[in-house]
Amino acid sequence: MNPSVTKQKSVIDQIPEGSLFQFLEESAVTYGDRIAVIDDGREFTYDTLYKQTLHLSSLLASKGVTQGDRVMLMLPNCVEYVLSYYAVLRLGAIVVQVNPGYQREELSHMYSIAEPCLWIGESIHKEKVEPLKLQCLFVDEELSTGTNEDLERVSLPEVAVNASEDVAVIQFTGGTTGIPKGAMLTHRNLMANVVQTFAFAHGTYERGEEVFLGVSPFYHVLGMSSVMNQGLYAGATIVTMRKWNVEQGLRLIETYEPTYFPAVPTIYISILDYAKEHPVNLKSFKVMTSGSAPMPVEIIRQMERLSDGGVISEGYGLSESSPTTHRNPFIGLRKIGSIGIPLPDTECRIIHVDHGVDLGINEAGELLIKGPQVMKGYFRDVESTAMQLQDGWLATGDIATVDEDGYYYIVGRKKEMVIGSGYNIYPNEVEDVLYTHESILEVSVYGVPDRYRGETLAASVVLKKGTALTVDELRAWCKERLAAYKVPKMIEFRKELPKTNVGKVLRRKLAEEHRERLKANGN
């Protein structure tokens, strides 16, 4: 029998009906004169942000975007991301989140699945998107964020959104197979997770008073939900960063004094390393959260000492759950090293990985989750949806235990996903690209421990007879075809790969051998 977890007060009746767009709309009414976004020195009040979003919606409508259409959004953290995201939602269209670091092959694959009607991004990516023959909107050429009289005269069609059925965002994830799939997150999924998270943090921060540092990428489900959507819902000021740089980040912290800092372990480690030789002031932090990868316990303790009273709350989530399902309480019993307790209205089961029966306290099995934040399914992929969702229960692929107090611990992964610098990396996807190299006969990609990244990607390669290739040459070739975080940091050439008696490559054995070598070298 699964133990009952610490009960949270239900928030089901607090989840709004209709469109996620109302988060911005309602905050514009309540906090109109408050600064909503600070982007590289540019400041936008909630009133201005709302009006400019409507203006952009009108522009998108003139380009033919209507309810149910998919729009690819490929931008770094900036005010134009916020404007574009909510402008698409205002029309009842669907945001397809895209990492700006993606290359042609990756974009082409996502395009073939999502079939968007429009792409929004920066002109520096023109060469990447030209092969898609897709209508584009380049925000640095076509979008003006200056106020003008047009903002007062926007006319848009009324759109009726069914919050439970209508998809707001397609968030690509590799799932358990490594083949990218589009998780369909409805308006209700995303609004629910914001309301759940805000209720969970009750008494920690207040609406209309906080400053969020927007470090986590908005195109990633963590940054989208925990920073952008939650920030606008809370009437907070969001200070954006295109990419984390420790010196720049600490300057922003000193200037704007953020109270809420959602980040991944690598960012915390970079701050600690910097603080060894430089003074650091983190006293404005009330809440720090960590997600996307396990946080070493010692790093948590060091960061809390450095912030002089700030609390780091570890959590857990997936793209398929909008994303957060568990978190350590900000107030009350906090168990460092655990992922905490389920958010309000989130049910959990731990089942035997082979037999599917429910397990009890401290017994390790696969974690299943059910709640209002769990996705509708995978876009145009009935088979994968049926495998991942059964009777409303989401199979996470992660191995977990739960203790007598209802606190959950992730002890392993059923899937062979690698988490490096907070990014999910699916070995099969990288292997598929490497196999297109004319000199490669066989390849296996896997993760090995890394103090900074959490895990780093390694590749074992067998070359075809009569060919030659260096590590530097292969890495340069990969950089042209893969986002930087997917390029293997460690590459070795071998005569053969270890395999089972039926010819399956023993990826786990390669990873173990690599770990042993690192250990022998004192790493």
Describe the structure.
A seven-stranded mixed β-sheet has the order 6-5-3-4-7-8-18, sandwiched between helices. Strands 11-12-13-14-15 form a five-stranded mixed β-sheet. Strands 16, 17, 19, 20 and 21 form a five-stranded antiparallel β-sheet that branches. α1 packs antiparallel against α2. It is globular, with a radius of gyration of 23 Å. Among the domains are: about 130 residues, Rossmann fold (3-Layer(aba) Sandwich); about 100 residues, ANL, C-terminal domain (GMP Synthetase, Chain A, domain 3). The chain contains 15 helices and 26 strands. The two termini are about 40 Å apart. The N terminus is likely disordered. Belongs to the ATP-dependent AMP-binding enzyme family. One of its GO terms (molecular function) is long-chain fatty acid-CoA ligase activity.
